[in-house]
Amino acid sequence: MLVYYLTDSLGVTALAAGIVMTLAKIWDVLIDPIIGGLSDRVLAASGSRRGPMLLGAFGLPVAFFLTFAVPSGLVPFWSGVWVLVSFTAAATFFSLFQVPYVALPAELTNGYRERTRLLTWRVVVLTLAILLFGAGGPELRGMFPDDPLRGYLVMAAVAGVVLCAGLVIGSTTAPKRVVPVAEPPTISPIRYYRDGIRVLRQSQPFRALLGTFFLQALATGLMLAGAQFVATWLLRDEGAVTVLFASLIAPALLVAPLWQLVAKRVGKERGFRLASVVFLVATLGLTPAVWAPGWWIVAPVALAGAAYAGMQTLPMAMLPDVISHDARMRKGRAGTFGGVWTAGETTGMALGSTVLTVVLALTGYVESIAGVERQQPDAAIVGIAISFSLLPALLAAASLFTLSRYRLRERDLAEAA
Predict the structure, then answer these.
(1) All residues at 6 or more sequence positions from 404 whose CB lies less than 8 Å from its CB, including other chains
(2) Could you give the domains of the chain?
């Protein structure tokens, strides 16, 4: 909702909104490897990763609320600056929780298939949350049709409360004394960047998996960011974003356990490839919306949602395998893997919004402030449709190539063990 909030409520131009998103995620890329190294240091010193996770759990809700709490009367430039600072703070607190959280599955279980079960239910909860806020967020905003800014503020307050509760509970899953207490490594940002580059260079499976996940995060981020624009300008109903989110995420919620069965039968890698192909077919099926927009798009969106569940569950279940395989030779790098992975994941999702804003700017999208009526040029409508169909399809096709480079199999882990 953030790009739409900037362009259609605060009057920020599409290009400036893209700059806001991009700068915040550049900061994310810079900070994630450092947080990964700090997470490993905290684990070595205390035997648990809970400290950074709790800091993120309490800081993120406040920063998230402030992102949508721009004071009334600010000109678009300073509104954009307010959002940039608040969103950057939110990204930092999120990383403090997410980076160690990503490292946990490799430390909670050594079982190859147990990790798939573990991550399957994690993705079920993830998709449920996306459904609740992707569909419920616009509904909360819609409760104040005469004052959209207040609607965004209420939405942010409700989200902040639930974020705090969920992240605090999630922090308790970090085990204590999972490794013997060791001498903490020296704090050095340069070292953490060097360690991040080293894991990329030394782990070919990690490079292939991260590249694939990045491209798919970019594709899904582009679709999620474009959903509100599709609802408003293709379906001509701002509230239709609720239906789009429900059709995208509800199938993912239902199908996620089925991808676990697919992985058990054919393997995680083949299951992941199958999910990616289904997503590619679904996004290609959306391309006629460029010429004939209508409610028929709900069907291919639902198919993309079913594929999305596999595209989340299976790579997240493969990541602990990569970390575990690396740990056979090099100890104490799970946090570094988590930092680099989170940087790639969040950057991909955010760059989806950036790509959307670039397309909007190139096609002449007209920004406005809340409550002001305006029309969009035909080129902008076409740009929105392409951003929701053809561009994600091209990214999905590219991800199939990087996935073909993934070489780690269950037998490799068994042999290493």
Answers:
(1) none
(2) 2-174+192-416 (1.20.1250.20)
